[in-house]
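C-alpha cells in:
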C-alpha cells in the first residue's frame, strides 16, 4: 500500500475528514526531546498547540492499515487538524467470541447497519476486519465516536446501528425477537456503554489547559522578564489580572460543562426491561442497551435512553428537548411490509423518514397505548453519541470554529504589531551596543519592547462588549448560548422567517368549511357544530382524523387539530383496559358527539326518531392512525362506527396532495380556482377525503396494512378553511428591517399562494411588486429538467394557468441583468420540490434566484437548511427566526438563529427569545451592531495603546531610560483597564439604520483612523521629547540627579527627603521621562474619546456616565 496515501472518512457528510497514517519514529523522538531541553520546554508547547507539527515531528508516514497514529484534517474552509492514537479491541478473551455463540453476529467495524450473517459465515466475517488470528480490531476515537478498520473498503469507518441499510421487513423478521445474552454481550463489547458521557473535567485539568493558552504563556514570559528588570509591582498586577481572568474563564467553562452534563444525565441510570430470544424478560440498566435489543416501554412513560423504533403499540411523546416544541406527538408502530402485499418490502428504515415511528433519545414518553396482554415494544437502533440527542451534544461539545472577518483581521493586525516590535527589537540592540550597554541589560530591554506590543488586557477587553451585550439581551428576554455569535449578528443583512407561529399567530381559527356534493362545491358554511351535519362523513373526518390525546384529562396535541376538533364540539374518550374486550382486544380512541345534538338530528317525525334512537349511542372508534408526515403532507386514519360492519378511511392534508389521491370524478372541476381564491386571501386550506373499506379488512389486518394501501381511490369531500392572522407586531418589525436595508425571506411549509398572500399582507412584498413563481420539473421519461415561469397574480385571472406564455415573463432577467431586476422589483417564489430540482439541475441559476427569492413554500426541514447554506454561499449574513419545530437544522446553520420557543434555553439555537415575538430580531441586530462596533473601538484603542507605549519606550531607550514600575502600573490599571471596561458600556442605538458596521479591520476608513492617530501621537511625543531639552532649566541626567523631586510632578517616584544618597540607577527621574509620561497619559484618554464611536450604532459617550467619570479620574 502506498505510504503517501490519503483517504477520506465520513465522505459527503458534514464532518468529512482527510486521514493520514503515521508510525512513531525513535530517532525523530530523540531529536525532538533534545530540542525541548534546548528550548527550555518551548518546543513542547509549540507541538502541543500544533497537532500537525507534533505528529510530523515525531512520526514517519505509514500505510493507514498498519499505522500507529492517524492525523485528521477537516475538509471544510477551516482545515482543522486533529490526531488520534490507534487502539486495539481484543475479541479472543471474550467468553462469547466463539463463532458458535454468535449466530446473530454483527459485521465488525463497518459503517453500515447490523447485518445478520449465517453461523457458518461468522468466522469469514471476522477475518474481514480483524487483522490477526488473535482477532484484534484496530480503531481510534475522535470526538466521542469510534472508527473501526474495515478491510473491505481499506479504510476506517464508524459502526452504525440499525439506522442504515436495514429494511422494514428485516426489522420485524430478524430483529423483533430480541437478542440472546451472548449476542448482547458481544455487541456491548463493540458498541460500548450506552451513555452520552459529558465528563466534567477536574479543575486541575481545566487549569492546565487554560494556562497553556499561548496568551498566558506569553504573559508568563513577560512577567519573568519584568521581574528580572525589577518591575515587581507591575508584574504582580499583571499576575493578579491573569489569575482573575483564568478563574473567571474556568468558572464559566466548568459551569457550561456542568449544565450540559446535567442535561444529558437524566437517562443515565434508568432500568429497562428487554425481551430475549426465548421470550424471557430481563431487567437491565439502560447503559447496557445495544442496537438490536427489544425494549418494553413502561405504562407510566420513560425518558428514552436511546433511539428506538416502535414495533408494537402507540406512544404519546414530548419532543421539546430536541425541537423546542412542547406539543405532544403521537408515535405509531412501524408498518410491517411483509403482512401487507402492497407494502414496500424492500423499503429501508431511516430514523428521519420514519420519525413518526421512532422514539428519540432524550424525549419523554408520556403515555402508551397497547394491545391487551401485549407490551409496547421498540427495537433499539442507535445508542450513545450516535443517537439524535448524542449528535446534538456532540455539536455543542465540538462546535465548528466561528469564521468572522473581524477575528481574522485582528490576527493580521497583531502580526503587524509584532513586525513593528521586531523593528524596535533590532533598534534597541543596535542603540544599546553603540552606547556600550551590558549584554544582560540589552537582552532584557530588547525583549521588553516585544512584550509591550501585546497588551495584557487584550483578551478581556475584546470580550467585554460581548459580555455587556449578552446581559442587555438577557434583560429583554433573549438568551444566548453562543456569545461569539452576538458580534456576527451585527452583520446580518438577511433574515429568514418561518410563517406559522412566527409571522402569524400560533393558533388557527376555523373560518368555515366548503363541502362537496355531486362533484360540486356547496356554499361556504361557518357553523360546523349543528344537527344537520352531525352524522355526515365530513364531520366524522374532522372528529377522527387528528393526533389528539388526553394527558391528565386535558385534550392536547397539534393546535390545528385542536381548533378543528373544538369546532365540531365532539367528545374524545380514551378507552380503559377493561373496555378493550368490546373492540376485539385493541384499545381504540373513541369520539362521539354531545347527546344534545343527536335527538334533533333526525330529518323526519317521531316514528323515525324512535327508529334512530335504537342504537343507544353514536360513536366512532379510531382503529389505526397514520400520523401526519411533512414529506407526504397528509395524515389518515381508519375508523369504525360502533355497530357498522365496514370500516372507514379518512384523510386530510394539503389540498393538491389530497386531490391527487382521490377519484378524479369526485374532484370538482373548479377545484383549482376555488383553492386559489382562498389561498390568495391568505387562508390556510385543508382538504378532506373518505372511502369505505372492504369488509374483509379485519381489526388485525388494519394494524399491519401500509398507508399506501389505504390512501388511494378516495372520495373528495371538501375543504376546511382556517384563518391564520398576522401577529400585531409583524408589519412594524418587517418595516423596520426594510428601512435598515435588511432583506426578509419567508420559509414555510404552507401552501405557495397562502405564503405569497401573507408576504403581501405583512409588507414583505409591496403592493406594486410582482411575484414570479418558479416551477421546476425534474427529468422524466427522457425529458430534461426544466423551469416554468409565471406570475403569481395572473393565475387567478386566467382560467388556464398553463396557457400563460413563458415568453411574457422576463426570464432573461434571471440569466442576464440583475440591475434591471432590482429596478422592476420582482420577487421569486418557489416550493420545496422546485427548490430541490433547481439545486440539483440548475446550479448556475441558484445565486441569482437567492438574490431575489422571497417566498419559499412547502419546504421540508432539510430544505430549509439547504436554503440557509445557499444564501450564505452568495455572501449573505443570514439570520433565521422560527418557532423551534422543524427549524432546528436551519437555526443551527444560520449565522444568527433565533428560536421563539417558550423554553428558556434551547440547545438547537444560538439564541432563544422568551417571548414568542419577532420584535426580538431587530433588538438582537441592534445589540449585535453595538457589540461589533465596541469590539472595533476596543481593538483600535488597544492597538493605539500598544503603539503609543511602544513609541514612548523607544524614545526613552534612545537616552538609555525607561518608564518606571509605578508609571507602567498607573497607565495599565488606572487608565487602560478602566477606560476599556467603561467604553464598552455604551448601550445600543435606539433604532436600526440603513448602513451596516464594517465586517473587518482592514478597510480604508478604519486604517485611516488608526494611522492618523498614530501619526498625531508620535508627532506630539516627539515634539515634547525634543522641546523639553530646549528649556533653560533642562539638566542632563546623572545618577545623583532627581528631576522629579525638583518638579514635584511624580510624587510616587520621588525620593524621600532624608534619603539623598539613593541613586537613580535606571535613569527614571529625568525630564524626558516626565514629559513623555504625561503626554502619553493624555494621549490614551484622547484616543479613547476619538475611538468611542456612538451614533448610529451605539449611544453617544456623554450618555455613558461611567466613561465620563473614568476620563475625569484619568485627567
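Residues out:
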Amino acid at each position: 500500500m502506498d505510504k503517501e496515501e490519503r483517504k477520506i472518512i465520513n465522505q459527503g457528510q458534514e464532518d468529512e475528514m482527510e486521514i493520514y497514517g503515521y508510525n512513531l519514529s525513535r530517532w525523530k523522538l530523540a531529536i525532538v526531546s533534545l530540542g525541548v531541553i534546548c528550548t527550555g520546554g518551548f518546543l513542547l508547547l509549540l507541538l502541543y498547540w500544533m497537532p500537525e507539527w507534533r505528529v510530523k515531528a515525531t512520526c514517519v508516514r505509514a500505510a493507514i492499515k498498519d499505522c500507529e497514529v492517524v492525523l485528521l484534517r477537516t475538509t471544510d474552509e477551516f482545515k482543522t487538524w486533529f490526531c488520534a492514537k490507534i487502539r486495539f479491541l481484543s475479541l479472543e478473551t471474550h467468553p462469547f467470541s466463539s463463532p458458535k455463540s454468535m449466530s446473530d453476529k454483527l459485521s465488525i467495524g463497518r459503517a453500515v447497519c447490523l447485518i445478520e450473517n449465517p453461523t457458518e459465515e461468522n468466522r469469514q466475517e471476522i477475518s474481514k476486519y480483524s487483522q490477526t488470528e488473535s482477532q484484534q480490531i484496530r480503531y481510534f476515537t475522535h470526538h466521542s465516536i469510534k472508527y473501526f478498520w474495515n478491510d473491505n473498503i481499506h479504510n476506517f469507518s464508524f459502526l452504525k446501528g440499525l439506522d442504515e441499510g436495514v429494511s422494514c421487513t428485516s426489522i420485524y423478521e430478524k430483529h423483533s425477537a430480541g437478542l440472546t445474552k451472548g449476542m448482547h454481550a458481544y455487541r456491548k463489547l463493540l458498541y460500548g456503554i450506552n451513555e452520552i458521557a459529558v465528563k466534567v473535567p477536574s479543575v486541575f485539568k481545566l487549569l492546565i489547559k487554560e494556562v497553556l493558552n499561548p496568551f498566558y504563556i506569553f504573559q508568563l514570559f513577560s512577567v519573568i522578564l519584568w521581574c528580572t528588570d525589577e518591575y515587581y509591582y507591575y508584574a504582580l498586577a499583571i499576575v493578579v489580572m491573569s489569575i482573575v481572568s483564568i478563574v473567571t474563564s474556568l468558572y464559566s467553562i466548568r459551569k457550561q460543562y456542568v449544565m450540559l452534563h446535567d442535561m444529558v444525565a437524566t437517562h443515565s441510570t434508568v432500568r429497562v426491561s428487554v425481551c430475549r430470544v426465548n421470550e424471557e424478560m430481563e431487567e437491565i440498566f439502560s447503559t447496557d442497551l445495544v442496537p438490536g435489543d427489544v425494549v418494553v416501554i413502561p405504562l407510566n412513560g420513560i425518558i428514552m435512553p436511546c433511539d428506538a423504533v416502535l414495533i408494537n403499540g402507540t406512544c404519546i411523546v414530548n419532543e421539546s428537548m430536541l425541537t423546542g416544541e412542547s406539543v405532544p406527538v403521537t408515535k405509531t408502530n412501524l408498518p410491517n411490509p411483509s403482512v401487507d402485499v402492497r407494502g414496500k418490502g424492500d423499503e429501508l428504515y431511516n430514523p428521519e423518514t420514519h420519525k413518526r415511528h421512532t422514539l428519540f433519545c432524550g424525549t419523554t414518553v408520556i403515555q402508551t397505548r397497547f394491545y391487551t396482554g401485549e407490551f409496547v415494544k421498540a427495537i433499539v437502533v442507535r445508542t450513545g453519541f450516535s443517537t439524535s440527542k448524542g449528535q446534538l451534544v456532540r455539536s455543542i461539545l465540538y462546535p465548528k470554529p466561528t469564521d468572522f472577518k473581524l477575528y481574522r483581521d485582528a490576527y493580521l493586525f497583531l502580526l503587524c504589531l509584532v513586525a513593528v516590535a521586531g523593528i524596535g527589537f533590532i533598534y534597541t540592540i543596535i542603540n544599546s551596543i553603540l552606547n556600550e550597554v551590558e549584554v544582560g541589560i540589552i537582552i532584557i530591554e530588547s525583549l521588553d519592547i516585544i512584550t509591550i506590543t501585546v497588551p495584557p488586557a487584550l483578551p478581556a477587553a475584546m470580550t467585554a462588549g460581548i459580555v455587556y451585550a449578552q446581559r442587555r439581551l438577557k434583560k429583554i428576554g433573549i438568551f444566548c448560548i453562543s456569545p461569539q455569535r452576538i458580534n456576527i449578528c451585527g452583520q446580518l443583512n438577511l433574515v429568514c422567517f418561518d410563517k406559522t407561529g412566527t409571522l402569524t399567530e400560533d393558533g388557527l381559527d376555523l373560518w368555515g368549511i366548503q363541502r362537496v356534493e355531486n362533484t360540486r362545491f356547496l356554499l361556504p358554511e361557518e357553523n360546523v357544530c349543528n344537527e344537520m351535519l352531525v352524522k355526515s362523513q365530513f364531520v366524522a373526518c374532522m372528529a377522527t382524523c387528528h393526533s389528539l390525546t388526553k394527558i391528565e384529562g386535558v385534550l392536547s396535541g397539534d393546535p390545528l387539530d385542536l381548533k378543528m376538533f373544538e369546532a365540531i364540539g365532539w367528545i374524545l374518550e380514551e378507552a380503559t383496559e377493561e373496555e378493550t374486550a368490546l373492540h376485539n382486544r385493541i384499545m381504540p380512541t373513541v369520539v362521539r358527539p354531545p347527546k344534545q345534538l343527536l335527538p334533533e338530528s333526525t330529518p323526519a317525525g317521531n316514528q323515525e326518531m324512535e327508529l334512530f334512537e335504537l342504537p343507544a349511542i353514536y360513536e366512532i372508534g379510531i382503529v389505526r392512525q397514520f400520523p401526519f408526515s411533512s414529506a407526504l403532507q397528509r395524515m389518515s386514519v381508519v375508523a369504525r362506527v360502533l355497530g357498522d360492519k365496514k370500516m372507514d378511511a379518512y384523510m386530510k392534508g394539503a389540498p393538491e396532495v389530497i386531490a391527487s389521491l382521490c377519484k378524479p370524478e369526485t374532484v370538482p372541476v373548479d377545484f383549482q380556482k376555488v383553492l386559489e381564491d382562498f389561498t390568495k386571501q391568505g387562508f390556510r386550506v385543508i382538504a378532506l377525503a373518505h372511502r369505505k373499506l372492504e369488509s374483509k379488512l379485519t381489526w388485525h389486518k388494519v394494524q399491519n396494512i401500509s398507508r399506501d394501501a389505504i390512501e388511494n381511490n378516495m372520495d373528495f369531500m371538501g375543504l376546511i378553511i382556517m384563518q391564520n392572522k398576522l401577529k400585531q407586531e409583524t408589519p412594524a418589525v418587517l418595516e423596520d428591517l426594510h428601512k435598515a436595508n435588511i432583506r426578509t425571506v419567508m420559509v414555510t411549509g404552507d401552501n405557495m399562494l397562502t405564503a405569497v398572500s401573507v408576504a403581501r399582507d405583512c409588507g414583505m412584498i409591496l403592493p406594486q411588486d410582482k411575484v414570479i413563481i418558479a416551477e421546476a420539473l425534474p427529468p422524466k421519461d427522457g425529458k430534461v429538467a426544466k423551469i416554468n415561469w409565471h406570475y403569481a397574480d395572473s393565475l387567478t385571472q386566467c382560467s388556464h394557468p398553463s396557457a400563460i406564455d413563458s415568453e411574457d415573463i422576463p426570464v432573461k432577467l434571471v440569466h442576464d441583468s440583475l440591475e434591471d431586476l432590482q429596478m422592476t422589483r420582482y420577487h421569486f417564489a418557489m416550493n420545496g420540490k422546485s427548490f430541490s430540482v433547481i439545486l440539483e439541475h440548475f446550479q448556475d441559476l441558484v445565486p441569482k434566484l437567492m438574490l431575489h427569492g422571497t417566498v419559499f413554500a412547502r419546504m421540508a426541514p432539510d430544505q430549509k437548511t439547504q436554503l440557509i447554506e445557499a444564501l450564505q454561499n452568495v455572501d449573505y449574513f443570514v439570520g433565521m427566526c422560527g418557532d423551534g419545530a422543524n427549524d432546528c437544522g436551519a437555526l443551527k446553520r444560520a449565522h444568527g438563529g433565533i428560536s421563539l420557543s417558550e423554553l428558556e434555553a434551547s440547545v438547537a439555537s444560538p439564541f432563544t427569545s422568551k417571548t414568542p415575538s419577532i420584535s426580538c430580531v431587530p433588538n438582537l441586530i441592534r445589540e449585535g451592531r453595538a457589540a461589533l462596533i465596541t469590539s472595533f473601538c476596543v481593538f483600535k484603542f488597544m492597538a493605539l495603546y500598544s503603539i503609543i507605549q511602544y513609541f514612548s519606550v523607544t524614545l526613552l531607550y534612545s537616552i538609555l531610560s525607561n518608564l518606571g514600575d509605578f508609571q507602567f502600573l498607573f497607565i495599565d490599571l488606572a487608565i487602560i483597564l478602566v477606560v476599556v471596561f467603561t467604553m464598552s458600556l455604551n448601550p445600543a442605538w435606539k433604532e436600526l439604520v440603513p448602513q451596516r458596521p464594517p465586517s473587518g479591520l482592514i478597510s480604508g476608513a478604519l486604517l485611516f483612523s488608526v494611522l492618523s492617530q498614530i501619526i498625531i501621537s508620535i508627532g506630539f511625543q516627539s515634539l515634547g521629547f525634543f522641546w523639553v531639552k530646549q528649556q533653560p532649566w533642562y539638566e542632563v541626567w546623572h545618577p545623583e540627579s532627581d528631576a522629579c523631586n525638583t518638579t514635584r510632578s511624580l510624587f510616587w517616584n520621588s525620593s524621600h527627603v532624608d534619603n539623598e544618597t539613593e541613586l537613580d540607577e535606571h535613569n527614571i527621574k529625568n525630564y524626558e521621562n516626565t514629559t513623555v509620561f504625561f503626554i502619553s497619559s493624555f494621549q490614551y484618554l484622547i484616543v479613547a474619546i476619538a475611538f468611542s464611536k456612538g451614533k448610529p450604532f451605539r449611544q453617544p459617550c456623554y450618555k455613558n456616565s461611567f466613561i465620563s467619570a473614568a476620563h475625569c479620574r484619568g485627567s
